[in-house]
Amino acid sequence: MSVYLFAGGGTAGHVNPLLATADRLREREPDAEILVLGTAEGLEARLVPERGYELVTIPKLPFPRRPNAAALRFPGALKATIDQVRGIIRDRHVDVVFGVGGYAAAPAYLAARAEKAPLVIHEANAKPGMANRLGARLTRFVGVLFPSTRLAHARVVGLPLRREVEQVDVPAARAEAQALWGLDPRRPTLLVTGGSLGARRINETVSTSIAAILGTGWQVLHITGTTATVADPGLAGYRILEYCDRMELALASADFAVSRAGGSTLAELGALGIPSVLVPYAVGNGEQALNARDLVGAGGAVLVADAEFTPQWVDRALLPLLDDRARVAEMAARAAAQGVRDGADRMVDLLIEARESRSTATAAPGSAAPGSAAPGSPAQPAPKPEADASAE
């Protein structure tokens, strides 16, 4: 029986791929023991036990950004946390450490290195976080979602998707969605979504332009999010949902999408071959605009900055696009060409490869340390982008 320590969390973008990988690993290795290392404050504190995995918590240690008392305490607190994780690795006889980024990841990576345990990393953003930039230097087992991600030893594996999305029967799910939400099977469907909390700019612009959009012959399934304030005008062909717990049905019903550009969203659009207009979240470090550049560069999506996604832009750009069915079909094919539906299996393959590397290293005197590249061995980097896309 092999023992795996999965580390990371905080947000759904970290926790969902972690759990999708754990589920697939459990299917392929039913006797495997899977522990999840996280914090008590992150989303993992609720989702991991709900999925039936053991959660081990460590203190949340934000990296200090300025010289203050917290910065002075940080080295000692980090060392204590690393020692705690090292104890877990030893006591539970962990064979492989797997991290997805987040507060729990960096201590796990450093503990794995100290204990000479194979380390595997997955990065779901084009712009890697600090923890994964550190971890990628400690191992050659690095999986990424985007080909343009610049991370040491990166291999494109896609995103471990939820099984209901990965294995969705599109025709059957589309029929179920049409029955559930009253969609017309004779009309193409535009899916509009900004995530579970919604996206104010997307919501307001689509709400203002809805009559013109419906005038193109499309119907609209609009997931507004739980904090949205847009009202339902009661127009035929316009279906508003505050929250959707059957996203696989919403995706299967979509012939086109308007959405944010989070990693999970892009992975699902590509996996199901859904062309899109992407409106990256304007707050933060611009990572969503970077996430979008591969799909946009391949011709499967159009990028528009949040501030520019206005009713005027809809009139000028979106409506002619929706009217051009040949272009929509071509964009769908290009999006599908970028998609990966077996990311969970690819990630589990990487975990097994790392585990077996430990056995090989143990059996071969003088071989490279577990998780490190053997001298002279070629790395497997993700292709570098031909050109950078413009950020917001």
Assign the CATH superfamily of the largest domain: Glycogen Phosphorylase B
Number of helices: 14
Overall number of domains: 2
From the 3D structure, determine the CATH topology of the largest domain.
Answer: Rossmann fold
Question: In which range does the helix fraction lie?
Answer: 40-55%
User: Helix/strand-derived class?
Assistant: alpha/beta
User: Strand fraction band?
Assistant: 5-15%
Oligomerization category of the chains in this entry: single chain
- Shape descriptor reads elongated
Using only C-alpha atoms, the radius of gyration works out to 22 Å
Question: Strand order of the main beta sheet, please?
Answer: 3-2-1-4-5-6-7
State the end-to-end distance.
48 Å
Q: What string, H for helix and E for strand, traces the elements in order?
A: EHEHEHEHEHEEHHEHEEHEHEHEHHH
Give me the count of strands.
13
CATH architecture of the largest domain: 3-Layer(aba) Sandwich
Q: What's the CATH first level of the largest domain?
A: Alpha Beta
> What is the overall pLDDT average?
89
Q: Which regions contain 5 or more consecutive residues with pLDDT less than 50?
A: 366-392
GO biological process, one term: carbohydrate metabolic process
Binding site for UDP-N-acetyl-alpha-D-glucosamine: 11-13, 125, 162, 196, 288
Subcellular location: Cell membrane
Pfam families: Glyco_tran_28_C, Glyco_transf_28
